[in-house]
Amino acid sequence: MSTPTIPGIDAGTVTPVPIDGELVAGTEAIEVRAPYDGTLLGSVPALGAEEVDRAVAAAKKALHENPLPQWKRAEILDKAALLLAEREEEFARCIALEAAKPIRTARAEAQRAVSTLQFSAAVARTLAGEVVPMEASAAGMGKLAFILRVPVGVVGAIAPFNFPLNLVAHKLGPAIAAGCPVVLKPASQTPFSSILLARVLFEAGLPAGYLHVVTGGGSKVGNPIVDHEDIALITFTGSPEVGWGIRARAPRKRVGLELGNNAPLILEADGDWRTAVAKVKVAGFSHAGQSCISTQRLFVHESIADEVVSELAAAVRTIVVGDPLDEATDVSALINTGERDRVAGWVKEAAEQGATVAAGGEIGADGVLLPTLVDGATPDMKVCSQEVFGPVVAVIRYSDFDDALRQANDTRYGLQAGVFTSDITKGLRAARTLDFGGVVINEVPTFRADQQPYGGLRDSGNTKEGPAWSVREMTEERLIILNG
After folding, report:
1. Catalytic annotation, pick one of 292, 384, 465, 473
2. Is 258 a known active-site residue?
């Protein structure tokens, strides 16, 4: 059997990254290994503050000397979307290998990234300010005023490992649409998706000064990006601890944070709970639960709880676990063994505290943690109170709908929540009561369309993603007044 490789990446050499129009290999390297079996996929440069300085200087120069008109931004993004669509299988293989995302799920991510670039192109074409009614006051008589949206400046983008293509597209696409150059730090575990996407954008016509990929650790690359005085905006996706640390470290910058969640889903007895079970089979375990909106806390009315747990446990046991390149695989490895052992430890702790492991909970012969259903969980258990970020769904039984809403709200997170009910009154009550950035009715909280406003409250973040909303953050409003 041949060693799996990423198209366009030589596993035997250091893959250089684009900075200031050149391919930079550096003097030290970071090995990238497949989470599933440890296969060496390649290496990337271990860079630092010097390369960040060079990238920012080039980005600032490009913004001032070569501003991109809106039509050109849209043209680049549309062409990049076409190129990405043509290479969907190559990108899917890259995602599957470096992130251990099952190949079918990886294809879906590549398709979503195409949409993200297309929506970004649409925003670039329609980006506009507004007219200010100056003659609404005597002081404004004879004057015409309008607002221009101009690029905020150089964007520093720090990306996560779990969606190594589409979440990077959610940073690069809007930045290009806004006319902002970007200095991008991909996750060290999954840098190749970013490198391949950069190649596509350059092929689509993006000038070299508008994108620089700086690989390296958080302290060596991340901190210099956050601290650099010529970076106007930071966009970060990752853990709350790191995210709020960035916000505190850069009080004078715009800092957009998309962080964690322990997504709740409430199943009322009058809802279509069988459909909900089928959806949770995917929503709670896809990509081994490594999604900010992975369904984690499942509140089930006590009158249907036994049936729900029985059917969901049976469904979870049918999930195919294994090699991410196998077409049959539904769930593969967590990003590393440390994360696997942490999640397994939380499940064991819940069992010791009185919960029942209704399915899974074990590490298979291939080292993959099996999809796990925990019944009889309580709010104080880590599998409920914290973000598991693993293939675990915890069931909490309740008797009163308002109490379920209260328990769902009892969290430091606030990204998305869901409710299944056939009662429109309950649905509206949930919409008004659940204190989350998004509330979905008769759908799992794991649902996301790439054009929607997406973001949370509290430790889930402080911004809205989605190209139309991200572009607002990445532009400044400039008031123009003409005196007639």
Report:
1. 292
2. yes
